[in-house]
Amino acid sequence: MAVSKCTRLNGPLIKQMLDSVDSVLFDCDGVIWRGDQAIPGAPDVINLLKKNGKKVFFVTNNSTKTRKMYADKMALMGFKATEDEVFGTAYCSAMYLKHVSRLQGKVYLIGSNAMRQELEKVGIQQTGVGPDPISGVQIDWANVPLDPEVKAVVVGFDEHFSYMKLNRALQYLNNPDCLLVGTNTDTRLPLEGGKAVPGTGCILKAVETAAQRQAQTVGKPNHFMYDCVASQFGLDRTRCLMVGDRLDTDILLGSNCGLKTLLTLTGVSTVADAEAHQESGCPKRLGMVPDYYVESIAELLPALQG
Predict the structure, then answer these.
(1) Residues annotated as catalytic (active site), given as ranges
(2) DSSP state of 258
């Protein structure tokens, strides 16, 4: 619909764009909230989109919360959201293992309690959550006890990640039939004040390097994240909008799946970043150029209230 990419969305163009979509997929952190604070106006935008008949979904690479935890967090902030509208990588990893891999066996999980809960909800047992302290010497590490029922190593965000967990993953993955699945490849988690901490991508890269294997990732920008939503709700990709703050995950997901894309500047990426991708002429980088951008999703409010 856009005559050119990276168009500033304002005035009549907002209503025109909203009229062209039936479903809107939102990233969460940096888009509808920052930390534990809602972006000003964001709850009204979400609630009015629904009131106006749009389907609204939330797609996040964060694997540390269950769908219910996200729905509860949103309710506290004033968003009208239900558990089945939330698609985090903890849930999507469970869906991938259950319905795509058709896993018969257990998972060695480098990840959170939320991931454990989502796996167990679909009948997949896991081992590995929590600290794994080191003991012994190298020959002991190479012969660490393994659960023979483990058929996949799944890597998400794990605050207890350690050398022993890395080693245990390697020993499982020495079996070529053992699957390696990662939630996402985000290498840094941006915080307020320009600070950042290492993200899941760093943990996943360590496991891939040790095992000399490439993981199947389920999170953005992999199309599986969209497929997960579309298969359950029968979405028409030509009438979907992806809204996000990161060009390399949110906007690239939209491009990979043929959705309209909207960058909001309340999070990580900037218009300058998008313009640099656009001017590069590189096909992969062009996938990170949004159709539109806004300073904040609150700019959609007048068109929704009219």
Answers:
(1) 27, 29
(2) T
